[in-house]
Every structure is written in C-alpha cells, then in structure tokens.
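Dear Dr. H.,

I hope your travels went smoothly. While you were away I took the liberty of generating a structure for the chain from your last submission, since the lab meeting agenda had it listed for discussion. I wanted you to have the full record in hand beforehand rather than looking at slides cold. The sequence, exactly as received, is reproduced here:
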Amino acid sequence: MRNRSLLILTTAVTAGALTLTACGSRDDKGGDSGSGDGVTVTIGLDAPLTGELSALGLGIKNSADLAVNTANNKKYVSGVTFKLVSLDDQAQPSAGQQNATKLVADKTVLGVVGPLNSGVAESMQKVFDDAKLVQVSPANTNPALSQGPNWASGDKKRGYKSYFRTATTDAIQGPFAAQYVFNDAKKTKAFIIDDKKTYGAGLAGTFKGEWEKLGGKVVGTQHIDPETKDFSAVATQVKSSGADVVYYGGEYPAAGPLAKQIKEAGAKVTVVGGDALFSPEYVKLAGATAAEGDIATSVGAPIESLASAKEFLANYKAANYKEAFEAYGGYSYDSTWSIIEAVKKVVDGNGGKLPDDARGKVVEALQGVSFEGVTGKVAFDEFGDTTNKQLTAYQVKGGAFAPVKSDTFGE
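The corresponding predicted structure, in token form, is as follows:
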C-alpha cells in the first residue's frame, strides 16, 4: 500500500483574488497531481476509469496527469500549482452528470478535461455552463455538442460557451471513412450497424449520407444492444445481404465480438468503424485473424509520426504509467494544457493573481488560446471545436492497426 499524506486546502479572498493554500500532498503516481505552496488550481477530469472502456479512459487520465506535472515542474504559471482530480464515469451519462455536479461544487476547480463519450458529455454540458466552468474534451466527436441539434441542415448554433474539444467531429469523420472505403478500399455494398447511442448512431448517420452520395449501395441497416454480446442474428443478416463492408457506429467492446461473429458466420466483409474502434482492445476482442484487414478512422495524424509529439512520447514513457496513452492521449494532454494556458492568461492579465470570477474569465480566455501542442496547432473556432481537422484511416495488419491514409480538411 502506498502512503498518502492528506491534502488540506484553506480558502480566502484577499485583495480581489482567490488564494488557496496547500498543506501536504498526495503521493499517487499516475493519479491525482499537485504539490507546492501558493495558489492551487484544480483541473478536474472525467472519463471511464473502470469498465470496458477503461483502456481509453486511463490513457486520457495519465496524459492529463503528465500535463499537470509538466506545468508544475516548469513553474509554467507563476505562483500557481496545478492539481488533477480524476473522477470515473464508467461511460454512463448519469455518473457523468453526478461528477459534473461534484466538480462544480469544488470552487478550486477552474477547468475540466473530458469526457470520453459524447452521450456522457450531453449530460454534463449544462451543469458546467451554468457554473461558467470550462470543459475541454479530448474525444467527443458528435457535432451537435458544439453546433446544436440542427447542425446537419446548416443551422449551426453553439449551445454552451463553456464547451470545447480538441478532437474533430463526426461531420468530417463519417464522410472521410465513406470516401476511403469507397474510393481506396473499393467497396460498394455496405451493411450499416449502430449501437443506438449518441456517438454511434450519429457517426453511422454521417457515414451513410456520404456513402450514398458517392454511389455506394446500402444493402442493410440494423441496430444492436451492445450489452448483449450475442450478435448471431445480425451476423446472419450481414452474410445473406451480400455486403462487402460493414460499417459499425459504436465502440470496441461490442465491435470486437460483432466482427468476430460476422466473420464466423461466413461473411466475406471488412468491418469499418470510427475512433472508438481504434484500440488494440478491438483486435484482442475480435481475434487477430478475424480483425485482419478491418479499418478504423481516428482523429489527427499518427502521433508517433509527429515531431510535435516527440517530447510527449518520451516523457510519457519516462513517467512509467502502467497503461498506454491510447487513441486520445495526445489530445488529453493538449486539452489539459489549453486549460493551463487559459489560467496563465487570466493570471497574467490580473497582476499575477486569480480574480474572484476566475471561472468565467478562464472560459473567455480559452476561446482565444492558441499554441503548438502534442497533436499540432491547438486553437478553437466559434463553436469551441478544434481547428485541427486532420483524420487518419488505420487498417489491421499483422494483428495491429497501421496507418494507411491521412487527410486534412478545410476550415
């Protein structure tokens, strides 16, 4: 068992500034971060830290932890020590909303990283916005979160000024997948399946729209309950449909078994999905043989290929985290750093102190944040969406995902 000393925070308002004094610190490698004296600013984090999607969630947490530790070691914001508090939502909207309420109640929290799931984000946005507490997701891709429910018709309206994200949206990801599958993989007959969740259904919808525009044929559609793990009925439907590709809108815990059962049913298809399939866990669950040739799209460029990510990769390795940074590690680091940059702007603009209305000021400052991050240029448009609209298609080759095509889309 690791020894932990208790962190005690005392709060006072002096000379128009919020002053927090930290006494003691937690010794928790890869967990909650924060040390030193002076003003302590808490950055909250919400992600699935347990359950089937925990591989992605823990990668998000570790990467945020690394950003906080880096800022503290560099004394990046004069007089400010950052602390990370991580909460587990288990990929459940109800848990996410409870976590949002808990983070809002902690007045030391000036920003939140997360969540992973778009459906969880829906349950959190109003809670954070009402409290003027900034939220930056490294992984949400549903366009409606930032552009409103009528975004597809061109009626784009930002609902929550406190919501930002460093991952590009499914308005681009779905069509990118359709273009790659039709033009590069030369598939023509698609069977489209989704898990009826916010992310999965939305992504499948944008794929379908572009697929039909390109001239691809939809030979079947189906919805599944991702909790059942028995997909024999839909596997039979896929085989009899004559499809040469299955597009799945959903996440790897169901996608892996689904792909395995479809292939076992005798269907000669390539299974394709979005960023929630881009994980070694997908290959494990499907089995290397069944997964071979399957395709996943994901946000950004392969992080190992980016000069901007070299320091992150080296530091992550040196930190000895037990879990991999996974698909969203770089985006989590950049999400965390964007909050740190916003806090710095607020502090620097207020004589080196945090103002009483620090939360609202951080929201305003984050809108104008711009820096070279792990994943490239980090900045936000009028909807709070990232201006980095690069995507990559990956294919399972020899039991692991390998990049096959990257593309950058216009503003």
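Two observations you may find useful: The two ends are 51 Å apart (CA to CA). Residues 1-37 have pLDDT under 50 and may be disordered.

With kind regards,
E. W.
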